[in-house]
Protein 1
Amino acid sequence: MNYNWNWSILFELEPGASGSYLSYLLVGLGWTLALAILAWLIALVVGAMVGIGRTLGSARLERMCFAYTELFRNVPLLVQMFLWFFVLPELLPQALGIAMKQMPPPWASFWPAVLCLGLFMSVRVAEQVRSGLQALPRGQRMAALALGLSVAQTYRRVLMPNVFRMILPPLTSEFLNTIKNSSLALTIGLMELTARARAMQEFTFQVFEAFAAATVIYLVVNLLVTLAGRSLERSLRVPGYVEAGEGKGLPLAGH
Amino acid sequence: MWRRAKEKASRWRVTNMGYDFDFDVIARSWVYLFRDGLSFTVTLTLLSMAGGIVLGTLLALMRLSHLGPLRAVASTYVNVMRSLPLVLVIFWFYFLVPWIGGWVSGSGQPLKVGAFTSALITFTLFEAAFYCEILRAGIQSIPRGQLFAGSALGLSYSQNMRLVVLPQAFRNMLPVLLTQTIILFQDTSLVYVISSTDFLGAAHKVANRDHRLVEMYSFAAVVYFIFCFSASVYVRRLQKRLMIIR
């Protein structure tokens, strides 16, 4: 029982003849990152809005934001991918549905995946924003309002800048989760990193080289993002301000 | 004339969203979905939860141990697992487990391993890393004075952990452990990538056989939502109760 190791396979030409298998995987990494970054932008914007919505003190808004959170949190991401890719085009007006299905190959699965992953992660961002807002000293909001700032100004000029600095460490790890979760786009046909490792395994039968290469790429990306997150934290830190480190509070479940 | 009729028909379809639902497919397949699909999902969730918590506890104790090598092994394991996408880990073990099985059993060939066994091993090993971090926080939340008091009373390390620290750590972390289990329940749907018939896999098979993707996937979403939402409501209630007693 011997496995035939053949690491040079990484430098051989892939069947599509676009280059070596290594570059094939790296293009996959490009798709992974493009998907994760776009989804992350959606997650930040929507998540901040929903998180703020839960702290404005309006019962109706609070209920709506709560329903939104529960809806996206309690359906598996894979099922959500299927809903965006297979179900949504059928429910939209026909012309739009057909247009969605007829996008040229990578885009037809890329855009649904971006929307799906973005809204899925927005719930996690919203929870972080909400708990950050609740952790801020009440005096900040009161002082801002007393100075004559409107509610919108209070959030924009006083609360949010502080909150985003405070929740930067958990946000970094949520971004890492976004990168990891983007691998689910392979189920709707996007050839991102994991999908390409899988395809390489099918073309070459070099199972472990393919997955090891993908694993190393993910680990390196993980390391780089973590380091970037830390240096961002350092440069944005408010001097003398209490840090909300990872050791504080309950660890959130999830990945 | 024929063309005009066709145009008319297509215009009619546009105004009617162009999809005719057939929810009868659910009535026809729900026995299969729940008997074959959901039972796979639930069994896999419960067994990997049990295995994951046991292994996670061991890893947490290793990460907090005084022995450098133990600490290094455990933290490397946990950090690597936590940096990889679950899909990739599923693929890894799907191919790795037969080879390891063949090597352990000493037979000359990769062992034949069923999809369920492979998934069970994967989820146990993967989730252990996440349970480990939760339990580590739980253990660290116990004041050190209790450990010192235990040692002063003559308890050994294992007695101290077993009788004093771990019961409290589990209790404090129970809501988080359960939330992680809800996530595990959702994650088991990923066995789709190795074509297992879990709940989603069963829905997927029926959907493709009868060309009823819309109905089946929506139904699957509703079922997952009901299960996970009720579980998370329960967890929140539990959390409140535990907080009051403490």
Note: Chain A is about 70% helix and 0% strand.
Protein 2
Amino acid sequence: MPVLTRTLVLLALSLYTAFAAGPFVWAAMLSLRTTTEIHLNHFAFPNPAHWEKFPDAWYNSNYATYFMNSIEVVIAAVVVLTIVGAMAAHCLARYRFRLNRVIYFILFSTIIFPPQITIIALFQILVNYGLYNSKLGLTLVYVALQLPLTIYILESFFARLPADLFDAARMDGYSDWEIFWKVSLPIALPAVATTVILNFILLWNEFLFAVVLITDEANRTLPLGIQRFIGDTQEDIGMIATGLMIAIVPVIIVYAFFSEKLIQGMTAGAVK
Amino acid sequence: MPAFRAKELKGDVRQPWGTIVAFLLPALTFYVALTAYPAIRTLWNSFHRVLPRREEFVGIANYSELIKDEIFWKAVSNTVTWACISPVIEVTVALLLALALYAKVPGARFFRVAWFTPVLMSYIVVGILWMWIYNYDWGPLNTLLRAIGLGALAQPWLGSPDTALGALILVTSWMWVGFNMVVLLAALHSLPKDVIEAAELDNCGWSAKLVFVIIPLIRATLLNLVVLSFIGKMKIFDLVWITTKGNPLWSTETVSTYVYKRAFEWTTFDLGYPSTIATVWFVIVLATVLLLTWLFRTREKLEY
Amino acid sequence: MAIVRLERLTKIYERAQTPAVKDVSVEIGHGEFMVLLGPSGCGKTTTLRMIAGLESISDGTLSIDGQIVNGVPAKDRDIAMVFQSYALYPHMTVWDNLAFGLKRRSIPRDEIERRVRNVAATLGLSEFLKRKPHALSGGQRQRVALGRAIVRNPKVFLFDEPLSNLDAALRVSTRGEIAALHRRLGATMIYVTHDQVEAMTLGTRICIMSNGRVAQVGTPLDVYHNPASTFVAGFLGNPPMNLFPAVVTDDAGGRTLAIGSLKLTIPPERMAPLPPGTSVTFGIRPEHVSAHGQGRPTEIPFSCEVVQVERLGAETLVISEIADSGARLVARSGGDVALDLGDRVTLYADLSAAHVFDAAGNALRQQTETR
């Protein structure tokens, strides 16, 4: 395309990039400055860079607790979710039986459910079973929450595996369960990895269910913790910014290593 | 050797029922216990007053109250507005960006990764950042406006009933444009080269090629993104909760925040009424999704 | 003693109108190479899969080594299968692919190692043992698939169109390898294909199937020279047998056929007498029709006009229309033939190789059918 148009387009794109990434860059800068410095000038470059704010936030506010709670809940949920989801997806993809498509449709259609339809009753149920305000309760809810998406992604992958492979394994003497573990899952590793990463990010950021089902300070997950932070320390912008940075770190790490996979995983279903 | 009827295995060799059940049981248990049953229970709740220690059946009293509930209708209006405006902005801007990258602008790979980043962030983080951006005194937005002489336009963006909803819509657009752009870029790249080349041979100018060839071909993806965006906005909660909580004056109240408030913050402690709201909303969302997919599906899949 | 015996084997799929396989009865002896041959959809693969245990049997019995195995799961039938798509485990090395089936059968580790190394050496795979399938060529993958079956030392080998994914040259050489394998191992092999050349060259006997039923069973040459039906006659042989509808005349002897205005008297050993007016089909293979008369008493001249000549180098096909009937006659001769489009020529058909089929398409000559 002609040079003038190209330069204009590049200009527009760069402006947009500033718009898209700007807030994070600003937050990063704020996280390294003390609140006093910030009040003097909200946009100055960190000078000096106060790296000590990070351990400070970690240890002195309950950040460590919130962070570890999130880690526990999310990792546990993702592990259970992946295994349970893979089993169901494998079954739906490979075995022909009358209820197959009905079950698939039912599971898949819950993706459009607004969470309100389940959240009130979930609250009641967890209270009744003593799981309210517990990490276990939240973990179980998270598994149920992400199952439809996981099964959807894995089912389409398992369905593409050639049938001959399973026949050969059956003739080699392997039972259905062994075929699942030793043939299906290993081959499906790329798709499984995608769902793991996807679920990790979605659950790490999850807020609504956490805010309804957890009120105990000791059990708060990270998003709740940050919200609490805002409430307690409204004016301490420096501290909040540091907290935000800590919250983003795992996501950034995953994104840095797996950006391609992540992008593809999150957008795969949308391309038609 | 006399032939005799072979012992028929149950179903075909491929239907070992025991295994099928074993594989599906965990997933179905989660589903029934934590998704299906709660949904039904919510429906059941909607016909009761659900108080901490007892429940009383009230028939359709909740529903009739709902019809008169002004806050509910304001919330619905806000949410539906959001769900209608957002897709338009998000998909249009995303399309422009995707086309720019598709036209082989240098740095495409970097831009793609950079623009996708907002999608990964929690709404909480995003909400806080934008509350600062919108801050009346020192937020970058107002600072910028004042710097270029448009200080008169500076507002308490999230504090004014007229601008609050719009400000939030901008935030979600900021988040999701990147997602839509990536999807559209993939769709553009998957278009068959020969059709585009045929258009070039037919002496199509750039804009004609765009309108008459490219857009019709990616129509399915465009519509898909519109529906996805629509559904997402109908469910929105996190962003509103961390920024305005429905204020000022219900101008940013969404159905989800209203349900939460009625269930857990109002002192009536009645879970029945919010269940009613949830049920009605569920039906509305389902109906609109079905309507949209039906509207968009009646077009045949393009054969090339 | 037959090692694999199919007795009226039938397969009906749920909600299907017609059975996929109906009343198939074949006996395969020890060390035999039996080819199941037929057009696509004829039921040959379904039959093979029933033998393997991958499809359930709707009716009839299947016995291996004298024992009925209808309900026995695939892994317990002592059978190995080579799949059309090879079905190699993509996430495992060649070694693991070969050893996978053995590990499951409580065979001691050193025995597994010995067998795998042996088979790899035999098939020329020793240097590829650490590679994964995606790093192998098509031919190499095929050999791994073969190796996987050999290493199991099964009673019966099953092949499901193993050569159809290979290019032409590779197909020929692999065909030779399979034949050599059969000679070396002396094992019982059942092989499914739609390719006649594979069937004719590999099989000790072939079983031709059509529409789920057995059309004919016999040695390749036997089936070729004595087809039991017009289907078999038209299926085997390239180009296919010339077939013409005909009517028995009222000439004495009841063996004279009228094709249009032509009259042919079939030698007695090729046809039993029939009442006048019976509709039959007359068949003669292209290699028994030539432009030069051999001077034999059984030859019959046909006046024809040449419509197409295909010179293939080693042989020539001459396609002509029979005068005043318009039916097409294909003649095949070695070398070149000095004929061209439009030539009027007399073609000679040797009636000592004539075939006559009844109105339903069945051969009228008595067959010695081996089962």
Note: Chain A touches chain B through 83 residues (CB under 8 Å).
